Amino acid sequence: MAIQLGQIAPDFEQDSTHGRISFHDWLGGSWGVLFSHPKNFTPVCTTELGEVAKLRSEWDKRNVKPIGLSVDPVEAHHKWELDIHETQGTKLDFPMIADANTKVSALYDMIHPESDPTVTVRSVFVIDPSRKVRLILTYPPSTGRNFAEILRAIDSLQLTDARSIATPVNWEPGEPVVISPKLSDEEASRQFPQGYKTLKPYLRVVDLQAPGQ
Predict the structure, then answer these.
(1) I want to staple 164 with a disulfide (CB 3.0 to 4.6 A). Which of 74, 180, 196, 204 is the partner?
(2) Is residue 117 very low, low, confident or very high in pLDDT (cuts 50, 70, 90)?
(3) Dihedral sign, Cα of residue 13, residue 131, residue 105, residue 140
(4) Is 212 inside any structural domain?
(5) Start and end of every Thioredoxin domain (predicted)?
(6) How does strand 64-70 pair with strand 31-36?
(7) What φ, ψ does residue 178 adopt, rounded to 5°?
């Protein structure tokens, strides 16, 4: 059965470039980004893993732990790290799961036989500190991911967890948001004393960056 939003991310133990990992224990109190790459020593994956390493300060700022996965063994991961460092100018500082027995790939439905029965697709699972799956993205093996979008989505999740709001189309951090329709106008005024704009009864826009907020 496919994993759905809101369910607890399946736990597992598997070898990685950082040793044996028990996934839930490894997450601790952090958010997690579990992402798979189709195969080691391939061009798109090399650029992706380098980008994830370059984004270290952004992950730390959001209390996020990234962790990669492919069906190649640990020894191949370590050899590939040298190529990534040479071509992308950065060292990998996050673990890569060696899923040679495809246990984790099967658990997270990362192998799509109609695409390619031998490799994992480019899956992304964003998991919150309570171990719930909050975002799922699936790319074909040929299309590299946009990690800026993944960070943007995490910003939205973390912001909307804290306030009774949602983020509109193409939202970027610092831009206006929409107020949850579940809030009455009275409650909205209490929570957002800076004021808000009502476009429709169900569409109310507020700037969280207003003075005093």
Answers:
(1) 180
(2) low
(3) negative
(4) no
(5) 3-159
(6) parallel
(7) -110, 145
What is the number of structural domains in the chain?
2
Assess contact for 132 and 8: CB atoms under 8 A: yes
Same domain membership, residue 71 and residue 42: yes
Segments forming the whole domain that contains residue 178 = 163-206
Q: Does 32 reside within a domain? A: yes
Distance from C-alpha of 37 to C-alpha of 123, rounded to nearest angstrom: 8
115 vs 50, more confident = 50
Task: Choose the catalytic residue: 45, 119, 121, 127.
Answer: 45
Residues 95 and 183 in one domain: no
Task: Please report whether residue 76 resides in a domain.
Answer: yes
Which two tokens mark 82? 């040298």
| 153 carries an active-site annotation | no
| Beta-carbon contacts of residue 9 (< 8 Å; ≥ 6 apart) | 3, 23, 24, 32, 34, 125, 127, 131, 132, 133
The pTM for the full model equals 0.92
Q: Are residues 125 and 187 in the same domain?
A: no
Residues 171 and 104 in one domain: no
